[in-house]
Amino acid sequence: MKKIFQLLCLLIILAGLNACSSDKDQDNNGDSSQFSYTLYTGASANELLSDTRFTKIVIEAVYVDGFRPEQASLNNLLFFLNNRLHKPGGISIVEREIPAQSLGTYSIAEVRQLEDDIRTQFSLDDTLTIFVLFADQSSENDSGNSVILGTAYRNTSLVMFQKTIEELSGGFNEPSRVNVETAVYEHEFAHIMGLVNIGTPLQSDHEDQSNSAHCDVDGCLMSAQLETFNPLDMMNIMGSGIAQLDAQCIADLQANGGK
Ligand SMILES: [Zn+2]
Ligand SMILES: [Zn+2]
Questions:
Q1: Is 66 left (phi over 0), alpha (psi -120 to 50) or beta?
Q2: What's in the keyword line of the UniProt record (predicted)?
Q3: CA 183 – ligand 1 centroid, Å
Q4: Does the chain have fewer CB atoms within 10 Å around its N or its C terminus?
Q5: How far is the CA of 18 from the centre of ligand 2 (A)?
Q6: 79-85 long-range contacts, CB within 8 A, separation 24+
Q7: Average pLDDT, the chain
């Protein structure tokens, strides 16, 4: 059986950029010294990458109805973040579980609302906080063979469609669940780190012309190939490991305060 699936986070991000630039999601009412968590994806890239404003990161990981990632995937994510972000005070994960939401498939509007209702960690003093929802249902934007595994939808907010990830990994001729989780989590975190060209300026010409916010280097963690492959291609890319950022993506991050 041939399952072709895509991460269409790019489309979601572009929708988010359009929506957020002018609508109510842009929170400008509060105290200007407060750090807003409702900015567009990539808007806080420098604050993530550098230690200029924040020296620590706390990731609030909310698992819906037991949809918790493998521990190895979380360890891989922390290793990846420590390699790229200047956070001398450390990066930690605060875990929490919430009941099933009975919303059916999730729209990004519903994910935003859920975050507004349940997020408890907010950036303050030397600590930047990131909210990650591990969803118990798929995205409502899935269609046919095209499914979404994760979306970076605000400056410090991500949703992972954990149920979909679990269904599409670990089987015969499919990559391992840990490899898929790791690639998806790292890919989405790299979007809030401003890749590609969404908050972290290009240092060289490597943005994919037909898939903006992605990299045109084959096999790069941020390549669009990672979003449009079938399980066999996925095995070729990740069967023996997890996709890495290429040198040009890393150079962009380094020029914007990262490692
Ligand atoms: Zn993407
Ligand atoms: Zn790249």
A1: left
A2: Signal
A3: 11
A4: N
A5: 24
A6: 80/182, 80/186, 80/189, 81/57, 81/189, 83/259, 84/49, 84/193, 84/245, 84/250, 84/253, 84/258, 84/259, 85/48, 85/49, 85/57, 85/193, 85/258, 85/259
A7: 85
CATH 3.40.50.620 fits 37-255, yes or no: no
**Which residues are near ligand 1, the ion (C-beta closer than 5 Å)?**
9
Distance CA 177, CA 71 (A): 11
Residue 30's Cβ-count burial label (10 Å; 0-12, 13-18, 19+) is exposed
Expressed in angstroms and rounded, the spacing between residue 155 Cα and the centre of ligand 2 is 20
Q: Each residue of 27-39: pLDDT tens digit?
A: 444 455 689 999 9
The CA distance from 231 to 71, in Å, is 23
**Contacts of 247 by beta carbon, 8 Å cutoff, 6+ apart:** none
Q: How far is the CA of 225 from the centre of ligand 1 (A)?
A: 10
- Please choose, from the candidates 146, 108, 86, the residue with its C-alpha nearest in 3D space to the C-alpha of residue 15: 108
The ligand with the least distance to the CA atom of 208 is: 2
| 136 and 114 Cβ atoms separated by less than 8 Å | no
The pLDDT-based confidence of 240 (bands split at 50, 70, 90) is low
Centroid of chain to Cα 175: 19
pLDDT at 33: 66
**Nearest bound ligand to CA 189?**
1
How far apart CA 49 and CA 258 sit, in angstroms, is: 4
Q: Of 28, 23, 16, 71, which Cα lies nearest the Cα of 192?
A: 16
d(CA 131, CA 103): 19
